[in-house]
Amino acid sequence: MSGFGLDQRLARDSELVATLDLCQLRLLKDSRWPWLMLVPQRDGMSEVFDLQPLDQALLTFETNMVGSALKKVTGATKINVGALGNIVRQLHVHVVARSEGDPNWPGPIWGFGQAAPYEPSRQQEFMTQLVEALSS
Amino acid sequence: MSGFGLDQRLARDSELVATLDLCQLRLLKDSRWPWLMLVPQRDGMSEVFDLQPLDQALLTFETNMVGSALKKVTGATKINVGALGNIVRQLHVHVVARSEGDPNWPGPIWGFGQAAPYEPSRQQEFMTQLVEALSS
To answer: Which domain holds residue B20?
Structure first.
């Protein structure tokens, strides 16, 4: 694997939860929704179909593992998965737990309002729960 | 495969383009963006991770094949892929061609404004171009 550099905006807006085989798993610094992001550790990719076939399969595996764990931890109504990248071109996949009545439900989370930072101990607790659900 | 029934709202809002190994490929009746949808022909699924592992791999393959063809046909700046399902729970994956300056760019397409129907010959032409790009 060649060097991997994380986009500065993605780095600023999120916190590293775990390093998986392909992706960095990161938590968005926005407590309005339980909102994770997977960033494949490959440079120069902006579309999922830019990845090598094996990496495409790994990304699917990791996205589904994370989505399933996130649903378990949060008890959410629906997991929303999205790869948009209209603003930040480095390939990243959002995995978000949605529940009836949450901000902008049933609309999308992207481009809606302003981020609401976590209370630090709550953020740490949530990250710990996620790591536990991923290892079980 | 057991019987497959397409959700009535998905059926109403879109047109069948092709039947792939796993999914129906459908075009949304909304000319504001080149907007496709993949619907796995499996009943009772609402999350990607509900699918059997082989179906998860097939869905990834078909999503990437369609995304790549859509980018080729449209020359779009960015392909947006999303599986939300907050309104219609039957599993479906959006694949949308986005270009700078299109409606709500760089925000998401979901929940934005009202659909603008295609001029019928334009819709037919676009579907033909897609099928050609998928077979090449």
So the answer is: 8-135
| Interchain CB contacts (distance < 8 Å): A and B | 103
SS3 of residue A17 by DSSP: strand
| CATH code of B119's domain | 3.30.428.10
Q: Does residue A2 belong to any structural domain of this protein?
A: no
Interface predicted TM-score (ipTM) of this complex, two decimals: 0.96
Residue A3 lies in a domain: no
Distance from the A52 Cα atom to the nearest Cα atom in chain B, whole angstroms: 11
pLDDT of residue B136: 84
Does B63 reach chain A within 8 Å, measured CB to CB?
Answer: yes
Averaged pLDDT, groups of 10, chain B, 136 residues long = 86 98 98 98 97 97 98 98 98 98 98 97 98 94
Contacts of B102 (CB under 8 A, 6+ apart): B32, B33
| Alpha-carbon span A101 to A75, nearest angstrom | 14
Q: Is residue B123 part of a domain?
A: yes
Q: Looking at the complex, report in whole angstroms how far the Cα of residue A92 sits from the nearest Cα belonging to chain B.
A: 11
- Distance to chain B for A71, nearest Cα, Å: 10
Contact check, Cβ <8 Å, A79/B47 = yes
Residue A3: predicted pLDDT: 72
CA distances from A47 to A81, B70, B76, B105 (A): 15, 12, 12, 17
In a domain, A87, yes or no: yes
Total structural domains within chain A: 1
pLDDT in tens, A9-42: 999 999 999 999 999 999 999 999 999 999 999 9
pTM confidence score: 0.97
Indicate the residue of B60, B71, B80 with minimum beta-carbon distance to A60.
B60
Q: Is A133 on the interface with B (CB under 8 A)?
A: no
